[in-house]
Design brief:
Blueprint lengths: L4 H5 L9 H11 L12 E5 L9 E2 L3 H11 L4 E4 L6 H7 L3 E7 L15 E5 L8 H9 L2 E4 L11 E2 L2 H18 L13
Parallel strand pairs: 1-3, 1-4, 2-7, 4-5, 5-6
Helix pairs in contact: 3-6
Length: 191
């Protein structure tokens, strides 16, 4: 077969597509906003509860509630890729200012998020690949990790109160770096 010699010597190359390839696919398959809309944005949590491995256990509800508490119900979406068409997956990311979740294929949907979005990953340890960090950089997104919420290759993530606090801290930091306003900062108490 007609295979590049580089491909033969570097098995990781397919996991690190160049920027132009990502932008080409993005432009052909789905419109991608040039920047995050500060008036119309969402935090998209990519769950793996439908997957057989690398799920957040024992129950990801406390994490979801804590993240939702930062941005409010209307700005928080849980993304489950199973059963969605490609078009539905693309549309799910159009307003995603922040994408957060465990290492897995669903995170690659960052490709459809507005340029400049933030990606917050629950990494695998030891580091086995940096494909999502590469993809985020190639797409013009920022990239962060919740270092206290990790998985060992095909093991599940163990959720702790520290990990929840760290995820909330990373989310708040991403919101601030994007210059976005949260529900909490837009509310006031009546006297």
């Amino acid at each position: 077969p007609n295979v590049s010699p580089r491909m033969i010597t570097n098995n990781w190359l397919p996991f690190f597509p160049p920027r132009y390839a990502l932008e080409l696919v993005s432009s052909i398959l789905g419109h991608r906003a040039q920047s995050v809309d500060p008036n119309n944005w969402e935090v998209v949590y990519v769950t793996r509860n439908d997957a057989g491995v690398r799920r957040v256990l024992p129950d990801e509800k406390p994490l979801l509630n804590a993240l939702k508490g930062v941005v409010g119900e209307s700005r928080f979406k849980v993304f489950v890729a199973t059963g969605l068409s490609l078009t539905q997956q693309i549309e799910s990311m159009h307003k995603a200012a922040i994408i957060i979740g465990p290492h897995g294929a669903g995170i690659s949907n960052m490709m459809w998020a507005p340029k400049g979005a933030a990606v917050i990953l629950f990494p695998m340890r030891p580091v086995s690949d940096i494909c999502f960090a590469h993809m985020a950089a190639a797409l013009g997104h920022s990239y962060r990790e919740v270092s206290s919420l990790t998985s060992y290759y095909y093991a599940d993530y163990t959720l702790t109160s520290t990990a929840i606090q760290d995820a909330v801290t990373e989310l708040r930091s991403a919101i601030a770096s994007l210059g976005l306003s949260t529900v909490a900062s837009n509310t006031h108490k009546e006297l």
